[in-house]
Amino acid sequence: DEESDYHLNSMVRFSDGRRMIAGEAGYSYRSYDDGTSWELMNMPYMGSMWGAIAVPGDCVVFFGLRGHAMESCDFGTSWQELETGTLASLSGAADRDGLIIMVGNSGTVLTRVNGSVTEYSHSSGVDFAAVVPLDDGRFVLVGEKGVHWYPESLKDDNDG
Length: 160
Description:
Layout (H helix, E strand, L loop, with lengths): L7 E6 L5 E5 L5 E3 L7 E2 L8 E7 L3 E6 L4 E4 L7 E2 L8 E7 L2 E6 L3 E6 L2 E6 L6 E6 L5 E5 L2 E5 L3 H5 L2
Antiparallel strand pairs: 1-2, 2-3, 3-4, 5-6, 6-7, 7-8, 9-10, 10-11, 11-12, 13-14, 14-15
């Protein structure tokens, strides 16, 4: 079975029991019954998606290979490609009050506010794997050579 040769990389669970899985080579799935049964979604991008995050508005963003990020607000029936401005692969994301941060290779940090994505190049230049929001308004970025911050300094946080 060709379908079973690909990795399933990230799962999002909605409060009503629906679930979505982001996977490789366009193989991504959804479940309406808390994972009892699954159906393959028709993805517009057949590359690998390494992560998924639920975002405000009962939406989900899948992200992955070559800077691709896609959003669905109808549980995967339709998808909109997000203009990320990067070809760097994306591997982690976090949401704090509608501010979405996506991180990836070569120090890539993307911020998304009100639907608009802005690219930032972290001075470390490392490949990031994950991001976690902190109470002080910053984000912890985890990757090569340990822990990093976004914004990179508290001064940046006050610059707006």
